[in-house]
Design brief:
The complex is a heterodimer of chains A (114) and B (112). Chain A is mainly beta. In chain A, 0% of the residues lie in helices and 52% in strands. In chain A, strands 2, 4, 5, 6, 9, 10 and 11 form a seven-stranded mixed beta sheet that branches. In chain A, strands 1-3-8-7 form a four-stranded antiparallel beta sheet, with no helix packed on it. The relative contact order of chain A is 0.33. With 112 residues, chain B is mainly beta. Chain B is 0% helix and 58% strand. Chain B is built from no helices and eleven strands. Chains A and B meet through β5 of A and β4, β5 and β10 of B.
Chain lengths: 114, 112
């Protein structure tokens, strides 16, 4: 059973702080993703990674960066948090092996920036 | 890039009724169409998917239909139950990209 975990369920930060959100998957998946979920806007892709040290911008990368130093771990970094980054952040992983394109999501981190 | 539109944004039904959620996509190269269910406070989970070489797929009370010509696909839930209440997301992706574009979600409410 695929397990995707995120470092925090809830996080409160101040404007201007540097914020790290971490995601770990235990299924040796090559692909990892960071999404932002806001009411009425669905799931919007921030960044994704096909492999270690690889990263690609998604639809809304501004204000974010990522790091993937190990295959199982994908970190989302807010260099200087702003109030408009208050949101639910979801990590996901998938594997190109076989024909499955299923995304496995983490439980989410609800971030509040004051 | 791909654009996926999903309707309705909210759907309220009585227990036992059927529910239909519709999505349209813009990129004719898209060939994989998953549906995810997100219960309140939980993570999205895949409930059913369909590929472009198939017109319909069924799994117990849920089914998905695909019309490639019109570029739309739909989720059908029959005999709805209160536990079907959730937000449902459709998505579309091109084969090999593994990067889905999601619709904005439909909040389904099933009244007992």
């Amino acid at each position: 059973d695929v397990k995707v975990t995120q470092s925090s369920r809830y996080l409160v930060k101040r404007t201007g702080e540097k914020v790290f959100l971490e995601c770990v998957q235990d299924m040796d998946h090559e692909n990892m993703f960071w999404y932002r979920q806001d009411p009425g806007l669905g799931l919007r892709l921030i960044y994704f990674s096909y492999d270690v040290k690889m990263k690609e911008k998604g639809d809304i990368p501004e204000g974010y960066s990522v790091s993937r130093e190990k295959k199982e771990r994908f970190s989302l970094i807010l260099e200087s948090a702003s109030t408009n980054q208050t949101s639910m952040y979801l990590c996901a992983s998938s594997s190109p092996a076989g024909s499955s394109e299923t995304q496995y999501f983490g439980p989410g981190t609800r971030l509040l920036v004051l | 890039g791909e654009n996926v539109e999903q309707h309705p944004s909210t759907l309220s039904v009585q227990e036992g009724d059927s529910a239909v959620i519709k999505c349209t996509y813009s990129d004719s190269a898209s060939n994989y169409f998953p549906w995810y269910k997100q219960e309140l406070g939980k993570r999205p989970q895949l409930i059913i998917d369909i590929r472009s070489n198939v017109g319909e797929k069924k799994d117990q009370r849920i089914a998905v239909t695909l019309n490639k010509t019109a570029k739309h696909f739909s989720l059908h839930i029959t005999e709805t139950q209160p536990e079907d209440s959730a937000v449902y997301f459709c998505a579309a992706s091109k084969g090999g990209s593994y990067i889905p574009t999601f619709g904005r979600g439909t909040s389904l409410i099933v009244h007992p």
